Amino acid sequence: MKILKQNLQGETTWQYDGEALERGKNFIIIEAFFNRDDLPFQDIVMKRDDRFVETYYADKWYNIFEIYDRDDGRLKGWYCNLTKPAVIDDDSIAYVDLALDLWVNADGAQKVLDEDEFEALNLDEETKKNVWAGLRELQIYFESKNPPR
Predict the structure, then answer these.
(1) Does the pTM exceed 0.85?
(2) Which of 57, 94, 96, 102 allows an S-S link to 4, with CB 3.0 to 4.6 Å?
(3) CATH architecture of 2-143
(4) pLDDT tens-digit profile of 92-108?
């Protein structure tokens, strides 16, 4: 299936393929493999072919990427995008990226990323409220040591 990352104008800014692992009424979990060159990020390196288990929600303002090392299979952490709720079809998933991100190390340490980019989007107050509520929901999940699936 195709995964489509979109900007506020609905234009696709990144696209890749994944395989559906599980579907529910308002979510889908897919498996995909990192398709970019090795990239230092926070305290890890995202490597080409790292395994991503990605959960998208049709009723939440975020998605969650669980990242596993290509070489030893160990969990590196969770990359969470704050987004508009995903549009999940039979053969594609589209989401509008709203710049704000949450990185959670495998040990549970959290870091909010790209607040300046989020503020530069000049979103309406209702959208901002939904994004901040989504961020808080994610933070609570990870603080409880029970990340959402």
Answers:
(1) yes
(2) 94
(3) Beta Barrel (2.40)
(4) 999 999 999 999 999 99
